């Protein structure tokens, strides 16, 4: 619902990309991807900075343009922020990156698909070519949870493409945020003869998905993202023994290699090339992500890497209001 009805409404333009890098993916997901693009009132997109909204687990970019009860969707938020002068005008893309496993970490995976390549090599040229927005030094991305993870990992690994990033409650500190759910996952798999295939088959056939099962699917999606094995069903293998719970260290090491706290050791200096980096997390985040955020913040501080870090008194859920901080920050950074 629009909070400020005095501001002009921007337009949502429909764009569909037929991806080459996602074709014939192991999950059988479609290669045709919708990418709605927001253009603010009074603009045709030409010359505007471009932001890309990458969403959290179980979400898809187009969902952020849907009507929302008791609050604004992202275009309405942008209308208000731009219309009141709280931020300069920007174009925003909302790519559909949903997968059969319920989500995306926005990295290249032999199981989930080449999502880093899709965003950078296919989506950006398509959006910028059509609307004349973005370009070198004028691209940023933002997201929450898995989207926050994607934003910080792209900032670390691909600062050659992105000039600014905002990570809201992003997955990091894997020892703290994933291990507990890993054990819950193997308990649930025990009801399916310890078979990932049987669990997913029943999950997909169920008339209603239980919340607990969605958390299991999330861990399976993480496994397919961080440590894929194309020889397994949907490329999924877990880093623990499914009977005893003992950690398989070589597999867990593959997960840890994708932890932003660890990636900062190798790629941290790339962040110096950004025009702006925003990181925040709720102090009561129920997935323990605030501890990983503090670890990353401390590492960046020690290396004098510029960034804006904030904590706020809330948990992981329903925190879109934090975009009132990050979106103006990103827009101003891209225009600097």
What would your notes on this structure say?
This protein is of the alpha/beta class and 336 residues long. It is 36% helix and 14% strand. The chain contains 11 helices and 12 strands. The strands form 3 sheets. The chain has an 8-stranded mixed β-sheet, sandwiched between helices. A two-stranded antiparallel sheet has the order 2-3. A two-stranded antiparallel ribbon has the order 7-8. Helix 9 runs parallel beside helix 10. The longest helix has 17 residues. The radius of gyration is 19 Å and the shape is globular. The chain starts with 10 loop residues before the first strand and ends with a helix. The relative contact order is 0.15.
Instruction: State the assembly state of the protein chains.
Output: single chain
What's the total count of β strands?
12
Strand arrangement, largest sheet? 1-4-6-5-9-10-11-12
The arrangement of helices and strands along the chain is EEEEEHEEEHEHEHHHHHHEHEH
CATH class of the largest domain: Alpha Beta
Helix content: 25-40%
Radius of gyration: 19 Å
Structural class: alpha/beta
User: If classified by CATH, what would the architecture of the largest domain be?
Assistant: 3-Layer(aba) Sandwich
What would you call the shape? globular
**What would you give as the CATH superfamily of the largest domain?**
Alpha/Beta hydrolase fold, catalytic domain
Mean pLDDT, all residues: 97
* CATH T-level topology of the largest domain: Rossmann fold
Task: Give the N-to-C terminal Cα separation.
Answer: 32 Å
Number of domains: 2
Runs with pLDDT <50, length 5+? Answer: none
Largest sheet: 8 strands, mixed
Approximate strand percentage: 5-15%
Supply the number of helical segments.
11
